[in-house]
Batch of 3 targets.
Target 1
Amino acid sequence: MASDPAVADPLRIGSHTFSSRLIVGTGKYAHYQLMAQCLEAAGAECITVAVRRERLVDAQGKSLLDFIDTGRYTILPNTAGCFSAEDAIRVARLGREILSQLGNPGADWVKLEVLGDSRTLLPDPLATLQATEKLVAEGFQVLVYTSDDPVMARRLKAAGAASVMPAGSPIGSGQGVLNPNAIRICLEYLKDGDADYPVIVDAGVGTASDVTAAMELGVDGVLLNTGIAHAKDPLRMARAMRMACESGRDACLAGRIPKRLYATASSPREGTITG
Amino acid sequence: MTIVVNGEPRQMAEGTTVAQLIAALKLDDRALAVEVNLQLVPRAKHVEYHLADGDRLEVVTLAGGG
């Protein structure tokens, strides 16, 4: 079946719609100018930010917001660094307050991250579930960072998460998608009877092929930060990530050929001069 | 009175409001949220919210993150 690849294929998460399927973080860049260039080169429409204490000394320094057009990007505030449901809920409320002031459409959602361990940055599943329930009850659209455990993924969706976002591998590790079968099962469970339910691979992407591989599995998008920010040439990597995401999506929709053990010739057997 | 702002003790006049504190700290208030004793104080309440001795505040903004 042929389809027109130029036809719009938007990413829908809750009430938000994007033409780009790459969600890009704003952390760890050498400087804000480079960050702004990378967001542009990655084709991002949705970007993640953290909520942090104001610096009360040297408060006159440049702010992240001096480099982000808040009229252009939908900002997804995270609860990064929280190790309890209570703290994550507080941070989510603070983020909503800030984005409401900015008039940014991201005021109604949150990237929920409740960590259970500082070395692996793996999520605390119980606290993550509790925080999801509470934030959903408070009207947030919750995009929830989780491990690649399909049972947990199903529980989070049942709790009302707008998107379940399994990690490909530990945050910032650059190991790519370590267990594609787990992601496949997450996809089957989460999209069962609900094909449009958005599943995002969040964390672990090291290079462009990791993004393509994730998208080829059938996830709806990829969220990444370090893979661009810490590349030797972040701007070039941002461009690579954009194309990788588009390639993976197209390949997924196009449908790959089955893998076979033996060769099948591409040129016709008939008419060879060897008779 | 003594209040604690982002973990640091600070002397303020009795009855200082959240709005007065933000002005005194010379913060860019485009993107700022305030919590007093773990409870969010919405911007619309900053003018009328009077701080008390021992209050613990968090004053936050957006930062780069993933």
Target 2
Amino acid sequence: MNREADPSFSVIVRITARYVVRIMLVFGLYIILHGQITHGDGFAGGVMIALAFIMLMLVFGKDVTLRILTRPAATRLASVGALLLLTIALLGFTGGYFFFNFLGKGRAFQFWSAGIIPVCNVAIGLLVSVSLFGIYTALSQFHSDPERKS
Amino acid sequence: MIELYALLVFMIIGALVAVELKDLLSSVVSVCAVGLGISMAFLVLKAPEVAITQLVVEILCLIILIRATIRKDLPFSTSGRWFLNTAITVVFVGVFLGAVSLALRELPKFGSPIMRVASIYLRDGFAQTGATNLVAAVVLNYRAYDRLGEATVLLTAFVAVLTLLRRSGRVAPDGAGREEE
């Protein structure tokens, strides 16, 4: 990963980014998965994960990042997130109405509590992180197209 | 309450600076200072959940604005039909302020009746949803349509950006045909 790095950034930035990105990913996952217990929800955690990927892209260049998360994979993951959210909403009809909380409530302050809320958070986090990162890559790659100058 | 007014004055000054500056990068930084002021105002109003979201989205917007809009060759016109633009702006601001002043007269005062709806959520929220984070209970159980609409908006934005900025199938500037991928 180090060899193909963008030479415009120094060693300090690259090594710092390599560790900070992991912390950002873990923190974003924590925010998403504990949305029903503590502050923050799928949207905020998803934006944090997107920011971690954007930092990876800013420091190490687009080749390294797009090898981790390619464009077709990003499109598919965003679709999976949206379809998962819609499926949960439609499965609520088994209990009576749209977005019915059909899973068990669980005990307070436990991880498996609040029924469909963690699943919704995971779906929203997936959708938000992948689509915001995809929007960023599309915008930045569009400007770096060489043939656009002609 | 005084810190809230200080933040509001700070945000108004930041917005004015962002409009008046000639340098685009400085304008973007001023806009993001306004956004951070909003985040702090949410903290003052004791809404940490919204403050987290606002802060994170603000940083993402800062990165996208700087990365995607700060170009040397970006056209930035200050001349042109300024009279027409100013007249249209003044008319729209006048209509908007008039409509708002009519509409806001019908609303109850700020903070009264206090906690009318929120007290029901606070009383029944945990028993009905099982979530200890009551904001998540409201957003993903009572008002889940809101989240579904937000997800739809994001997915639509993603698909629209990918469609507009794709590489393959774009027509060449001279209109000769489709470019090679």
Target 3
Amino acid sequence: MSAAAQDIGSGGAAGSWSAPLRRTLRRHEAKLGIALTLIFLVMTVAAPLMAPFDPYDQDLSSALQPPSFLHLFGTDQYGRDMFSRVLHGSRTALLAIIVADGLALALGSALGLIGGFIGGAVDAVVMRLVDVLLAFPYLLLALIIVAALGPSLTNSMIAIGIVYTPQYARLIRGQVLSIRASDYVRAARAVGASQLRIMLRHVLPNAVNPVIVMATLQAGSVVVETAGLSFLGLGAQPPSPDWGALLADGHSYFLTAWWIATFPGLAIFCVVLGFNLVGDALREQFDPRRRK
Amino acid sequence: MKAPLLEVRGLTVSFRTEEGEIVAVDDLYFSVGRGETLVIVGESGSGKSAASLAVMGLIDAPGKVRCEAIDFSDKSGRKRDLSRLAEAEMQRIRGAEIAMIFQEPMTSLNPVYTIGEQIIEAITFHEPMSGRAARGRAEEMLALLGVPDPRRRLDAYPHQLSGGMRQRAMIGMALSCRPSLLIADEPTTALDVTVQAQILELIRELQRELGMAVIFITHNLGVAAEIADRIMVMYAGQAVESGPCRAIFRGTHLPYTIGLMRSVPRLGLDRSAAPLPAIPGNMPDPRRLPRGCRFHPRCSFAEPGLCDLQAPPLESCGDNHQVRCLRWREVRA
Amino acid sequence: MSALLDVTGLTRHFTAAHGGTVRAVEDVSFALAEGEVLGLVGESGSGKTTIGQTILRLIDPTAGRILFRGADITGLPARELKAFRREAQPIFQDPFGSLNPRMSVEAIITEPLIVHGIGRDRAERRARVLALLEQVGLPRDSLKRYPHQFSGGQRQRISIARALAVEPALIVADEPVSALDVSIQAQIINLLRELQQKLKLAMLFIAHDLAVVDYISDRMMVLYLGRVMEIGPARSLIAAPKHPYTMALISAVPEPDPDRADKRIVLEGDLPSPIDPPSGCVFRTRCPYALPACAEAVPELRQVGAGHQAACIREDIPTDNRRMRHA
């Protein structure tokens, strides 16, 4: 290399410190996301062991205590330990992810696969159904469903699951269509492979990645929204320690006993952040442009 | 000898990836004279595109550009080092002094603006003038490019035009301010061969009219033969041969060039029993370049003990003709 | 001797997005003998890819008849096409898109064997796959690897191995080398030619690169806007083309020879829309020899030499013999 060679950075761009900074952040945000998600999962499993108190145990003499060593997150208006309640609330959050996200995934995939594979009139009907679902504001739709079925945690999760179905349906249908147009599927057809074989061996394995990314990113949203429904009293009913219900409990006390609403809120925030970071990292990993 | 219009010295472009640093262009030297056509011939991984993007200052992070100098004589006669200019100054150079056109006109043109709007934007950025004047200039440019009914075509969107027309629109944008150097990166590769013939003809005509120098990047030797004054062959990031067009086609001393010329099927070629003399092997992995000469694993002239140990320097082998081969004296087409 | 493939009046129309019919292929007829290579050459909009896909019955023709070994496969439903599918296989252009990224090389090449029940057990199938790998010049350890670990040229070899797995009689190769680096193209062309000669494969070789098609084909068919312009032995077409479009195509090919001094025929204008093609001869709008009569009727394929036909009403067009220099 010539002695007079000069390093002029990345060709006039705003400053080459941003690139390494961005790279570091990217590596660390994935780790942070994984850490948060793991902590969340540990909480759900170990809640009964980790919680110092029974979350339903009332003790009016210690009502509205601020955070202390005994009650890490303070107590609510009935003297229940907030730390234990938040810990146990993680279980309903996990349940929400499994049921709501799971339902959306299953239903959406079925619709997307049917529409993408069969095509024609069936596809048109499926897509219009999806459009109808999308057109409703999520809250309105959830309200309608819950109104029909009655307010409970299970029903609110079903409602959220239905509300999120269109996203999955569209994603999977898009994947099916684009994969079916690929040359390797055409090669399989040319060899005489059956539609079933094509679906199982070619389409599904290649459709999976974006679905995983979506499921991870949606997990966070699902937690927020079931909490939202619980907050409105349409989901988990008292005395359930569901985080949304805790927010509902705490909001009227916010100015005097800030801890009742704050810690559940923080918990929701951290879990959603964790899933989003992991989802983003996965999306980058699966980015087809990164194929080696 | 007249001072060159563009002189690139010691250009190195590298990209930092998760697998390490990949050097796309390695210590490249080349120059282009006024009104001259330099064709850079290379395959994928040769570094030809990275080199031209570096000249234009269009390499972004994670790419890194290092060089001794990129000297360019602008229209006012001043010699400037492009590698040391700030972005704002480079923007004034791009379009007005040096223009670039790319392979895929569909993705290089903004689909939501008409081609007229895009050409006018290019014009008014460098030469403030009234909308009407700019439109007039754009129309002139389209007519010069052989676009029928230019006034109406100005209001067409890219998707309404054929591939050849889009390429002309892109050339129109590039040339609207009469730059002294046009860098064309595989502009005809994605076009039909009859359209390619039209566009090549067009570029030649425009060159004569505007006195423009052209750096034309291609992997097609036929195209090179048609339009080049000088040719630079690149392989694995290095310049491996450089010289006048005829000298390279008639008297190359580089095994790679010979291999390329022989392995490309030509019309009317005698299809005797012998297969096409193909170059064996694959392009080297930029992260694991061979020791010594980068081409030696695929070279039929390679001498063990020499070519696999020593990296060949660029040597002169004729009038203005250089070659990067240790055995060039023994190599004949 | 009856032809392996006999195509008559093949037509394929598509409905365009905003109404109107795209006439992608219009009244194309040709025959292909066993072991013969027919090159389909044309630019964008010529219909050559559509013809390939229709022959393979990946899409249905709008009209026309396809006979394979004398049997009419034009309207056969999917179930009954399986026997045909064993006889005709494709090779595609894009080395990245033509292999399932989630399947190992072994799985990719074994799939055709499984679909057609070839090989009694896994060991037999594997032996077959290994033999195929050797035929296409890939190492044995490729079995367990995945497409992304191979280069473009190597991926095309995998595609070729897959196509040969069922021992077909006909290969439809759609631009098999266009997406490859120049130095690799020759390798794959050689491989295809070698395999074609050794296995006596009939081939429909579709490409836009005239020189490549000429090199590998016995006969050539020149297409423009869905119609046949000229068809005949490859040598004759190149040495003495009879259709103005063929002449323009030949003339447009850049020659790696800086001393080529000939005047090139540069076609005026753009490709007409396939939704609204010109009346009569579809090429007349860009033809330097067009007459008013050309607009009246679609020219028939007229005999202009041994096995050589051109769809042009003029007989007086001077043939550009420049290519003879290289013969």
